């Protein structure tokens, strides 16, 4: 996947309607996603503005059938052996401080910060049945550090709980975490883990989760990051695996593959629309 460094070529004076008229029927997925980010509109609003069903689907990142209902939920994936949600040992969900945007440092009495290339993780949650944004839902996100270690589990990181955090989505279904780019460890494609809960208060018990999935990171951005200091082992690990051979993504990763913007020098952003 190509890393794009681009600026918005639509000014703020004509509004969404003018932008849609200018782009016309040939508007592509990337343009629609950019418009959605700027204006925060729903599928229904796009239809009223003359946007067809297929174009509206591009906005949300989900597929709708002829009735307009969504049909492509994000695949349900394993939480893996290191969730720290009480399902197999440690539990950060009930700890003070876990609700936070910046997840690079440890919390709740533990100290330490995960070093690495800055990565913002921007998710948009939508309903798989209505396509509408899922406001006030909670996302618990976690991933490994640049050495491939998971806090609370891996040797050398058992006294850390960094790279874990919970946040609630806003009125447009959006949530963003500040983190670092994870390693590619042996046997797995570069990825992030997340669980979705119906509310922030429900995100204190793993039994309340409504979805568990993973986010795949593109090879192009991974190659750039892994060429920097601290990620050397990831170069070898990534060379030995593909999305097609990964234990999680081998059955298809189109709904889980993030779009990456930015660069190594200024930090990157991984964006994904998730239907649940």
Q: Top keywords for this entry?
A:
276 residues, alpha+beta, 4-stranded mixed β-sheet, 6 helices, 19% strand
Number of strands: 8
Give unreliable regions as ranges. 1-69
Major sheet description: 4 strands, mixed
| Fraction of helical residues | 10-25%
Q: First CA to last CA: what distance?
A: 25 Å
Average pLDDT figure: 83
- Tally of alpha and pi helices: 6
Our estimate of the beta-strand percent is: 15-25%
Shape: globular
Q: What is the structural class?
A: alpha+beta
Order of helices and strands: HHHHEEEEEEHHEE
Major sheet: order of its strands? 4-1-8-7
Oligomer: single chain
Structural write-up:
This protein is an alpha+beta fold. Helix content is about 20%, strand content about 20%. The chain has 6 helices and 8 strands. It has helices at about 15-25, 30-40, 45-50, 55-60, 220-225, 230-240; strands at about 120-125, 140, 165-170, 175-180, 190-195, 210-215, 260-265, 265-275. The strands form 2 sheets. A 4-stranded mixed beta sheet has the order 4-1-8-7, with no helix packed on it. A hairpin with a 3-residue loop joins strand 7 (about 260-265) and strand 8. Helix 2 crosses helix 4 (about 55-60). The radius of gyration is 19 Å and the shape is globular. The two termini are about 25 Å apart.
